[in-house]
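Holo model, pyridoxal-5'-phosphate. Inputs:
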Amino acid sequence: MNIETLAIHAGQDIDPATGSVIPPIYLSTTFERAADGTFPQSYMYTRNANPNRTILERCLSALEDGVECAAFGSGLAATMSIFQALRPGDHVVAPDDAYHGVSRLLREIMARWGLTYTAVDMTDLGAVRAALQPQTRLIWIETPSNPRLKVADIEAIAGIAHDVGALCVVDNTWATPVQQRPLELGADLVLHATTKYLGGHSDVLGGAVVTRELSPIFEQVRFLQANGGAVPSPFDCWLLLRGIQTLAYRVRAHAENAMRVARFLASHPRIERVHYPGLETHPGHAVATRQMRGFGGMLSIEVHGGEGAAMAVAGRLQIFTRATSLGGIESLIEHRASIEGPESKTPPSLLRVSVGLEHPDDLIADLEQALAE
Ligand SMILES: *Cc1c(COP(=O)(O)O)cnc(C)c1O
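Output:
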Protein backbone atom coordinates (compact mmCIF):
# COMPACT_ATOMS: atom_id res chain seq x y z
CA MET A 1 0.00 0.00 0.00
CA ASN A 2 1.13 3.56 -0.61
CA ILE A 3 2.17 5.90 2.19
CA GLU A 4 -0.83 8.23 1.73
CA THR A 5 -3.18 5.31 2.38
CA LEU A 6 -1.14 3.87 5.23
CA ALA A 7 -1.08 7.27 6.94
CA ILE A 8 -4.87 7.31 7.02
CA HIS A 9 -5.58 3.62 7.73
CA ALA A 10 -2.61 1.76 9.26
CA GLY A 11 -3.37 0.83 12.86
CA GLN A 12 -6.63 2.78 12.72
CA ASP A 13 -9.59 0.43 12.99
CA ILE A 14 -13.13 1.62 13.58
CA ASP A 15 -13.62 1.68 17.37
CA PRO A 16 -15.35 -1.66 18.12
CA ALA A 17 -17.22 -0.37 21.18
CA THR A 18 -18.90 2.66 19.56
CA GLY A 19 -18.32 2.61 15.79
CA SER A 20 -16.36 5.84 16.18
CA VAL A 21 -14.55 6.48 12.86
CA ILE A 22 -11.81 8.57 14.45
CA PRO A 23 -10.26 6.94 17.51
CA PRO A 24 -11.44 8.23 20.89
CA ILE A 25 -8.83 9.39 23.39
CA TYR A 26 -8.35 6.70 26.02
CA LEU A 27 -7.39 8.71 29.08
CA SER A 28 -7.71 5.82 31.54
CA THR A 29 -4.42 5.03 33.24
CA THR A 30 -5.59 1.55 34.25
CA PHE A 31 -7.49 -1.34 32.64
CA GLU A 32 -9.69 -4.04 34.15
CA ARG A 33 -8.49 -7.56 34.76
CA ALA A 34 -10.70 -10.52 33.98
CA ALA A 35 -11.88 -12.72 36.87
CA ASP A 36 -9.07 -15.16 36.08
CA GLY A 37 -6.48 -12.37 36.52
CA THR A 38 -5.62 -11.94 32.84
CA PHE A 39 -5.90 -8.74 30.78
CA PRO A 40 -8.23 -9.73 27.92
CA GLN A 41 -7.50 -6.62 25.78
CA SER A 42 -3.80 -6.82 26.72
CA TYR A 43 -3.87 -3.35 28.33
CA MET A 44 -2.95 -3.13 32.00
CA TYR A 45 -1.50 0.30 32.85
CA THR A 46 -0.92 3.26 30.52
CA ARG A 47 2.83 3.54 31.12
CA ASN A 48 3.19 0.00 29.70
CA ALA A 49 0.73 0.48 26.84
CA ASN A 50 -2.26 2.63 25.92
CA PRO A 51 -4.66 2.24 22.97
CA ASN A 52 -3.81 5.65 21.49
CA ARG A 53 -0.10 4.85 21.71
CA THR A 54 -0.66 1.47 20.08
CA ILE A 55 -2.52 3.08 17.16
CA LEU A 56 0.28 5.64 16.70
CA GLU A 57 3.01 2.99 16.92
CA ARG A 58 1.32 0.71 14.38
CA CYS A 59 0.88 3.59 11.97
CA LEU A 60 4.48 4.77 12.33
CA SER A 61 5.92 1.30 11.83
CA ALA A 62 3.83 0.90 8.66
CA LEU A 63 5.07 4.25 7.32
CA GLU A 64 8.72 3.27 7.83
CA ASP A 65 8.13 -0.30 6.64
CA GLY A 66 9.28 -1.64 10.01
CA VAL A 67 7.82 -4.36 12.21
CA GLU A 68 7.36 -2.43 15.47
CA CYS A 69 7.63 1.03 16.93
CA ALA A 70 8.06 2.44 20.42
CA ALA A 71 6.74 5.99 20.95
CA PHE A 72 8.26 8.39 23.49
CA GLY A 73 7.48 11.78 24.99
CA SER A 74 10.14 13.56 22.90
CA GLY A 75 12.72 12.90 20.21
CA LEU A 76 15.50 13.01 22.77
CA ALA A 77 13.71 10.56 25.09
CA ALA A 78 13.55 8.15 22.14
CA THR A 79 17.25 8.80 21.37
CA MET A 80 18.18 8.23 25.01
CA SER A 81 16.40 4.85 25.01
CA ILE A 82 18.59 3.67 22.14
CA PHE A 83 21.79 4.77 23.90
CA GLN A 84 20.64 3.24 27.18
CA ALA A 85 19.95 -0.02 25.38
CA LEU A 86 23.75 -0.23 24.91
CA ARG A 87 26.12 -1.25 27.70
CA PRO A 88 28.70 0.79 29.57
CA GLY A 89 31.97 0.40 27.65
CA ASP A 90 30.26 0.27 24.26
CA HIS A 91 31.36 2.73 21.59
CA VAL A 92 29.22 4.81 19.23
CA VAL A 93 30.21 6.50 15.98
CA ALA A 94 28.14 9.67 15.58
CA PRO A 95 28.01 12.56 13.10
CA ASP A 96 30.20 15.58 13.86
CA ASP A 97 27.16 17.72 13.06
CA ALA A 98 24.42 15.69 14.77
CA TYR A 99 21.41 17.53 16.19
CA HIS A 100 23.02 19.38 19.11
CA GLY A 101 20.76 17.65 21.66
CA VAL A 102 21.98 14.24 20.47
CA SER A 103 25.63 15.34 20.76
CA ARG A 104 24.93 16.74 24.22
CA LEU A 105 23.33 13.45 25.32
CA LEU A 106 26.45 11.58 24.27
CA ARG A 107 28.86 14.13 25.69
CA GLU A 108 27.23 15.08 28.98
CA ILE A 109 24.89 12.24 29.96
CA MET A 110 25.85 8.97 28.29
CA ALA A 111 29.55 9.58 28.97
CA ARG A 112 28.72 9.13 32.67
CA TRP A 113 26.98 5.87 31.74
CA GLY A 114 30.35 4.72 30.32
CA LEU A 115 29.36 5.01 26.68
CA THR A 116 32.17 6.37 24.51
CA TYR A 117 31.79 7.96 21.10
CA THR A 118 33.70 9.36 18.17
CA ALA A 119 32.27 12.20 16.10
CA VAL A 120 33.04 11.98 12.38
CA ASP A 121 32.08 13.56 9.08
CA MET A 122 29.51 11.03 7.83
CA THR A 123 30.01 12.11 4.21
CA ASP A 124 33.55 10.67 4.40
CA LEU A 125 33.23 6.87 4.39
CA GLY A 126 36.96 6.48 5.04
CA ALA A 127 36.58 8.54 8.23
CA VAL A 128 33.61 6.39 9.30
CA ARG A 129 35.69 3.21 8.85
CA ALA A 130 38.67 4.77 10.64
CA ALA A 131 36.49 5.63 13.65
CA LEU A 132 35.51 1.99 14.28
CA GLN A 133 36.83 0.37 17.45
CA PRO A 134 36.54 -3.22 18.69
CA GLN A 135 33.75 -2.06 21.07
CA THR A 136 31.79 -0.15 18.40
CA ARG A 137 28.17 -1.25 18.71
CA LEU A 138 26.34 1.47 16.84
CA ILE A 139 26.73 3.98 14.02
CA TRP A 140 24.34 6.93 14.28
CA ILE A 141 23.38 8.72 11.06
CA GLU A 142 21.40 11.90 10.62
CA THR A 143 20.71 12.78 7.00
CA PRO A 144 20.17 15.42 5.77
CA SER A 145 22.10 16.85 8.70
CA ASN A 146 21.50 19.81 10.93
CA PRO A 147 22.14 22.60 10.09
CA ARG A 148 24.30 22.16 6.97
CA LEU A 149 22.16 19.57 5.20
CA LYS A 150 25.08 17.21 4.67
CA VAL A 151 23.96 13.96 3.07
CA ALA A 152 25.24 10.62 4.41
CA ASP A 153 25.06 7.46 2.29
CA ILE A 154 22.79 5.23 4.40
CA GLU A 155 23.33 2.02 2.42
CA ALA A 156 27.13 2.34 2.49
CA ILE A 157 27.28 3.20 6.20
CA ALA A 158 24.84 0.42 7.16
CA GLY A 159 27.21 -1.93 5.30
CA ILE A 160 30.21 -0.61 7.25
CA ALA A 161 28.30 -1.11 10.54
CA HIS A 162 27.16 -4.63 9.69
CA ASP A 163 30.69 -5.68 8.62
CA VAL A 164 31.78 -5.23 12.24
CA GLY A 165 28.55 -6.50 13.81
CA ALA A 166 27.39 -3.00 14.81
CA LEU A 167 23.93 -1.50 14.40
CA CYS A 168 23.03 1.35 12.09
CA VAL A 169 20.49 3.89 13.35
CA VAL A 170 19.14 6.72 11.19
CA ASP A 171 17.54 9.87 12.55
CA ASN A 172 14.94 10.34 9.79
CA THR A 173 13.29 13.40 11.32
CA TRP A 174 14.16 15.79 8.49
CA ALA A 175 13.45 13.60 5.47
CA THR A 176 10.40 11.77 6.92
CA PRO A 177 9.32 8.36 5.56
CA VAL A 178 7.68 10.21 2.67
CA GLN A 179 11.09 11.08 1.22
CA GLN A 180 13.48 8.53 2.76
CA ARG A 181 13.10 4.93 4.06
CA PRO A 182 16.26 4.03 5.95
CA LEU A 183 15.10 0.50 6.85
CA GLU A 184 14.84 -0.32 3.13
CA LEU A 185 18.43 0.92 2.72
CA GLY A 186 19.73 -1.45 5.42
CA ALA A 187 19.39 0.56 8.65
CA ASP A 188 18.34 -1.39 11.75
CA LEU A 189 16.44 1.33 13.59
CA VAL A 190 14.88 4.64 12.60
CA LEU A 191 14.60 7.50 15.07
CA HIS A 192 12.03 10.28 14.79
CA ALA A 193 11.46 13.52 16.59
CA THR A 194 7.72 13.29 15.82
CA THR A 195 7.63 16.85 17.18
CA LYS A 196 8.63 17.98 13.69
CA TYR A 197 7.07 16.93 10.36
CA LEU A 198 5.07 13.96 11.67
CA GLY A 199 3.10 16.12 14.10
CA GLY A 200 3.49 18.91 11.58
CA HIS A 201 1.74 21.72 13.43
CA SER A 202 4.25 22.76 16.14
CA ASP A 203 1.85 21.81 18.92
CA VAL A 204 2.99 18.43 20.23
CA LEU A 205 6.30 16.98 21.38
CA GLY A 206 7.13 13.35 20.66
CA GLY A 207 9.66 10.78 19.57
CA ALA A 208 9.67 7.27 18.16
CA VAL A 209 11.95 4.32 17.41
CA VAL A 210 10.97 2.01 14.53
CA THR A 211 12.71 -1.32 14.03
CA ARG A 212 13.35 -3.45 10.94
CA GLU A 213 13.13 -6.66 12.96
CA LEU A 214 12.42 -7.85 16.49
CA SER A 215 16.00 -7.61 17.74
CA PRO A 216 17.48 -7.65 21.26
CA ILE A 217 18.22 -3.93 20.98
CA PHE A 218 14.60 -3.14 20.17
CA GLU A 219 13.39 -5.39 23.00
CA GLN A 220 15.56 -3.29 25.29
CA VAL A 221 14.14 -0.02 23.87
CA ARG A 222 10.65 -1.39 24.52
CA PHE A 223 11.64 -2.37 28.08
CA LEU A 224 13.02 1.14 28.71
CA GLN A 225 9.84 2.70 27.33
CA ALA A 226 7.62 0.85 29.81
CA ASN A 227 9.99 0.95 32.76
CA GLY A 228 11.86 4.24 32.25
CA GLY A 229 8.48 5.85 31.68
CA ALA A 230 9.30 8.63 29.15
CA VAL A 231 6.02 7.95 27.36
CA PRO A 232 3.74 10.30 25.41
CA SER A 233 0.27 11.05 26.79
CA PRO A 234 -2.81 9.61 25.03
CA PHE A 235 -3.68 13.10 23.79
CA ASP A 236 -0.15 13.58 22.42
CA CYS A 237 -0.54 10.30 20.51
CA TRP A 238 -3.93 11.34 19.20
CA LEU A 239 -2.60 14.73 18.01
CA LEU A 240 0.39 13.07 16.35
CA LEU A 241 -1.84 10.65 14.48
CA ARG A 242 -3.98 13.55 13.28
CA GLY A 243 -0.86 15.24 11.94
CA ILE A 244 0.42 12.06 10.30
CA GLN A 245 -2.77 11.60 8.28
CA THR A 246 -1.78 14.52 6.01
CA LEU A 247 1.99 13.91 6.18
CA ALA A 248 2.62 12.95 2.55
CA TYR A 249 0.78 15.96 1.16
CA ARG A 250 2.42 18.37 3.56
CA VAL A 251 5.94 17.06 3.03
CA ARG A 252 5.69 17.28 -0.75
CA ALA A 253 4.48 20.87 -0.50
CA HIS A 254 7.21 21.75 2.04
CA ALA A 255 9.82 20.34 -0.37
CA GLU A 256 8.37 22.13 -3.41
CA ASN A 257 8.37 25.45 -1.54
CA ALA A 258 11.89 24.82 -0.21
CA MET A 259 13.18 24.20 -3.73
CA ARG A 260 11.72 27.51 -4.93
CA VAL A 261 13.09 29.42 -1.93
CA ALA A 262 16.50 27.75 -2.33
CA ARG A 263 16.72 28.70 -6.02
CA PHE A 264 15.75 32.29 -5.23
CA LEU A 265 18.34 32.55 -2.45
CA ALA A 266 21.07 30.86 -4.53
CA SER A 267 20.76 33.64 -7.10
CA HIS A 268 20.77 36.50 -4.54
CA PRO A 269 23.97 38.57 -4.32
CA ARG A 270 23.74 39.02 -0.52
CA ILE A 271 23.73 35.26 0.06
CA GLU A 272 27.13 33.62 0.24
CA ARG A 273 25.95 30.01 0.25
CA VAL A 274 22.74 27.99 0.23
CA HIS A 275 22.75 24.52 1.77
CA TYR A 276 19.94 22.53 0.13
CA PRO A 277 20.45 19.01 -1.25
CA GLY A 278 18.00 19.70 -4.09
CA LEU A 279 20.46 22.15 -5.68
CA GLU A 280 22.77 20.54 -8.25
CA THR A 281 25.68 22.43 -6.69
CA HIS A 282 25.18 20.81 -3.26
CA PRO A 283 27.94 18.24 -2.52
CA GLY A 284 25.34 15.67 -1.38
CA HIS A 285 23.05 16.10 -4.39
CA ALA A 286 23.97 12.81 -6.10
CA VAL A 287 23.56 10.66 -2.97
CA ALA A 288 20.35 12.50 -2.04
CA THR A 289 18.95 11.89 -5.52
CA ARG A 290 19.69 8.18 -5.14
CA GLN A 291 18.37 7.62 -1.64
CA MET A 292 15.60 10.22 -1.26
CA ARG A 293 12.30 10.84 -3.02
CA GLY A 294 12.54 14.64 -2.85
CA PHE A 295 14.84 16.90 -0.87
CA GLY A 296 12.83 17.97 2.15
CA GLY A 297 11.67 21.31 3.48
CA MET A 298 14.81 22.42 5.35
CA LEU A 299 17.64 24.61 4.10
CA SER A 300 20.21 26.94 5.52
CA ILE A 301 21.97 30.02 4.20
CA GLU A 302 25.15 31.89 4.92
CA VAL A 303 24.68 35.63 4.61
CA HIS A 304 27.49 37.93 3.37
CA GLY A 305 28.67 40.18 6.21
CA GLY A 306 28.74 37.70 9.11
CA GLU A 307 26.62 37.40 12.22
CA GLY A 308 25.39 41.00 12.30
CA ALA A 309 24.15 40.88 8.72
CA ALA A 310 22.48 37.50 9.30
CA MET A 311 20.71 38.76 12.42
CA ALA A 312 19.57 41.90 10.60
CA VAL A 313 18.05 39.88 7.74
CA ALA A 314 16.21 37.62 10.21
CA GLY A 315 15.04 40.73 12.06
CA ARG A 316 13.41 42.26 8.96
CA LEU A 317 11.37 39.20 7.97
CA GLN A 318 7.61 39.53 8.38
CA ILE A 319 6.21 36.11 7.46
CA PHE A 320 9.06 33.90 8.71
CA THR A 321 8.99 33.67 12.50
CA ARG A 322 12.28 33.82 14.40
CA ALA A 323 12.05 30.62 16.44
CA THR A 324 13.68 27.25 16.88
CA SER A 325 12.21 23.93 15.69
CA LEU A 326 10.99 22.90 12.26
CA GLY A 327 8.53 20.86 10.27
CA GLY A 328 5.39 22.81 11.15
CA ILE A 329 3.01 24.50 8.73
CA GLU A 330 4.59 27.91 9.46
CA SER A 331 7.95 29.09 8.12
CA LEU A 332 10.63 29.52 10.77
CA ILE A 333 14.10 31.04 10.66
CA GLU A 334 16.80 30.62 13.24
CA HIS A 335 20.33 31.79 13.96
CA ARG A 336 21.78 28.37 14.85
CA ALA A 337 25.14 29.26 16.37
CA SER A 338 23.50 31.18 19.19
CA ILE A 339 21.11 28.37 20.16
CA GLU A 340 23.74 25.64 19.90
CA GLY A 341 25.95 27.28 22.51
CA PRO A 342 29.71 27.48 22.91
CA GLU A 343 30.40 23.96 21.50
CA SER A 344 28.80 24.96 18.20
CA LYS A 345 30.82 24.72 14.99
CA THR A 346 28.09 26.39 12.96
CA PRO A 347 29.24 29.53 11.08
CA PRO A 348 27.92 32.71 12.78
CA SER A 349 26.55 33.93 9.44
CA LEU A 350 24.27 30.87 9.12
CA LEU A 351 20.49 31.02 9.29
CA ARG A 352 18.46 27.82 9.25
CA VAL A 353 15.11 27.92 7.51
CA SER A 354 12.14 25.60 7.92
CA VAL A 355 10.11 26.35 4.81
CA GLY A 356 6.41 26.22 5.67
CA LEU A 357 3.22 25.84 3.71
CA GLU A 358 2.52 29.52 3.02
CA HIS A 359 2.44 30.44 -0.69
CA PRO A 360 6.05 30.37 -1.99
CA ASP A 361 5.59 33.71 -3.78
CA ASP A 362 4.81 35.35 -0.44
CA LEU A 363 7.82 33.69 1.20
CA ILE A 364 10.13 34.83 -1.60
CA ALA A 365 8.72 38.39 -1.50
CA ASP A 366 9.37 38.49 2.25
CA LEU A 367 12.98 37.31 1.79
CA GLU A 368 13.44 39.81 -1.03
CA GLN A 369 12.44 42.78 1.15
CA ALA A 370 14.51 41.54 4.10
CA LEU A 371 17.60 41.20 1.87
CA ALA A 372 17.05 44.52 0.06
CA GLU A 373 18.49 46.84 2.72
C1 LIG B 1 14.20 18.14 17.13
C2 LIG B 1 15.11 17.05 16.77
C3 LIG B 1 15.46 16.07 17.71
C4 LIG B 1 14.99 16.11 19.15
O1 LIG B 1 13.60 16.00 19.28
P1 LIG B 1 12.81 16.64 20.55
O2 LIG B 1 11.40 16.21 20.32
O3 LIG B 1 13.02 18.11 20.51
O4 LIG B 1 13.39 16.00 21.77
C5 LIG B 1 16.30 15.05 17.29
N1 LIG B 1 16.79 15.00 16.02
C6 LIG B 1 16.47 15.93 15.11
C7 LIG B 1 17.04 15.82 13.74
C8 LIG B 1 15.63 16.99 15.44
O5 LIG B 1 15.34 17.91 14.52
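The CA atoms of residues 179 and 293 lie 4 Å apart. Residues 74-76, 99, 101-102, 142, 146, 171, 173-174, 193, 195-196, 205, 207 surround pyridoxal-5'-phosphate (CB under 6 Å).
Archived with the compound record.
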